[in-house]
Amino acid sequence: MVGVKSVPSPAISADDRSHEVDHPSSEVAQFGADQPLRLDCGIDLTPFQIAYKTYGELNADRSNAVLICHALTGDQHVANVHPVTGKSGWWETLVGPGRPLDPSRYFIICSNVIGGCMGSTGPASINPATGKVWGLDFPVITIPDMVRAQAMLIDRLGIDTLFAVVGGSMGGMQVLQWTAAYPKRVYSALAIACSTRHSAQNIAFHELGRQAVMADPDWHNGAYADQGIHPHRGLAVARMAAHITYLSDAALHRKFGRRMQDRELPTFSFDADFQVESYLRYQGSSFVERFDANSYLYLTRAMDYFDIAGDHGGVLAKAFAGIETRFCVVSFTSDWLFPTSESRALVHALNASSARVSFAEIETDRGHDAFLLDVPEFFDISRAFLQSAGKARGLTGKND
Amino acid sequence: MSVQEVLPLNGLAAEQSGPFRADHLLVAEMVKPGSKVLDVGCGEGDLLQLLETRGIDGRGIELSRAGVNRCVAKGLAVVQGDADTDLVNYPDDAFDYVILSQTLQATRQPKVVLENLLRIGRRAIVSFPNFGFWRMRLQLLVGGHMPRTENLPASWYDTANIHFCTIKDFVELCDTIGVKMERAEALDLYGRPLRLRLPWWVWNLFGEQGVFLLSRGQGK
């Protein structure tokens, strides 16, 4: 934990964040006692709410709906200014006017996952039974639970079949879960930088992050909200470690090398002498401003448990047997968190199911994070895949 | 492939033949409309695009990443893969036709690949450059060099083509593994079919490439 003391305290008030948890500034769907969310752990979660954003208009025959599934630390604010950080939407490179997902053409939906902290029910929400924050009393959730909740939201919005489900990383896992659980409801699926199961190495990294949170004395066994504090230091360390896995050796070298931060010579201390240290500390401290520590534990756990083949007798192809969904799988050469080999295993299973699948590996040194960055080849492929699926679906837009 | 002149083929309007290669037009003609096709070694997807215009559900496998990405960017269902190692992942009878266009000679195990084509597909269409073509023979006989042509310009030390054969060799392989030849065509240097019914030895001498429509035989 050397050097972590210098992670600055959050600049954004904790009140802003905790207000979003129960009263999000986006749309919210409430599900009462008559509509519990049946969780994999055997518990019925009720009542619960899903916070979501939509962009564009649903067409008359309700055939142009696109669901975007966000990654581990993402949220529903895909293409608008974030209510807590004030930053622009996390996927504005892909979503927006003239982008592959253009709201003039599609009705785009993105919901905060169950277990999240931006308005959907999660460990940071108030437990109506006690009037206090759930904390570790919140049941452990899985990727299939997240998708089940999204399906309830899609029902509520009156949509039967989604034209496309799109997501990267943990979002990609949800895309695959959608196709495995509701194949008839997904016309096309764009799964980016993801996997059908979380690898041992990835579980190991998540465990490292969770232990960092739990080692922070401010964590208080998850009951920090009662104390009016937040385990900033532990969560920042978790984020710093995770952030390294989102990049690549080449990208770090290109961006920082061994360059010093505002100094010529080493200080012979544990100050952030190197630019890369300073960058990581910034990543850690800006993350804790907007994210709940317990939510981080729950969502990383959900990814660890994810294994589609395991849910289908160990045979991945069985999960997709007879599926008519059009798939596009994308991986990035320098992504070592979800390497191309994982995507290839998925593609083999889809081939074995005779599914219609496109698979492109994109050359970049930017690591796992490439799916969030400006990578033109990725946009070209996404655009062409969606347009070709749209043509087959009979969608017409002004660009046709 | 240098195509200087393209003959319109049966069932295709002359203006449609414009942007397409003659050997692709011949292959497309062999595929029944409405069928499901896997193109192994689909390059940049030209044949798949031609098949799409004829209402055929086409999928592709391509070895080169650049080729795959260009195909996917055209909206084609193409995956990155290797004919030698990835065909085993496809189930039996998954396709009506599996096409191997100008790729057989670049595989490590042509016989295994051919067997896989006819396991995955009820029919296979295979085209390959004919090493028995008279200009090939002449280069070796007179020049004493490994042959090179406009269509196969690489030197022996950097060519991807490691298993060249002649039309005669291929016919013998089909016999060996009990594959039935439903249709055979030899194409001249410009990709035009040698229309006349000529004996095999003539095709083997004057055909620049062979195109075969194959189905499962009785086996041997």
In short:
Chain A has 400 residues and is of the alpha/beta class.
What does this structure look like?
The complex is a heterodimer of chains A (400) and B (220). With 400 residues, chain A is α/β, with parallel strands linked by helices. Chain A has one domain (4-393): Alpha/Beta hydrolase fold, catalytic domain (Rossmann fold), CATH 3.40.50. Chain A is built from twelve helices and twelve strands. An eight-stranded mixed beta sheet of chain A has the order 1-4-6-5-9-10-11-12, sandwiched between helices. Chain A has a two-stranded antiparallel ribbon with strand order 2-3. Chain A has a two-stranded antiparallel ribbon with strand order 7-8. Chain A is globular, with a radius of gyration of 21 Å. The termini of chain A are far apart. Mean pLDDT of chain A is 93; it is low at 1-10. Chain B has helices at 22-30, 46-53, 65-73, 83-86, 110-120, 134-143, 167-176, 200-206; strands at residues 36-40, 57-62, 77-80, 95-101, 121-129, 179-187, 209-216. With 220 residues, chain B is an alpha/beta fold. Mean pLDDT of chain B is 86; it is low at 1-17. Chain B has a seven-stranded mixed beta sheet, sandwiched between helices. Chain B has one domain: Vaccinia Virus protein VP39 (Rossmann fold, 3-Layer(aba) Sandwich), CATH 3.40.50.150. Chain A binds chain B through residues 326, 328-329, 344, 347-348, 351-352, 354, 356-363, 377, 380-381, 384-385, 387-388, 391, and chain B through 57, 59, 65, 68-69, 71-81, 86, 89-91, 94.
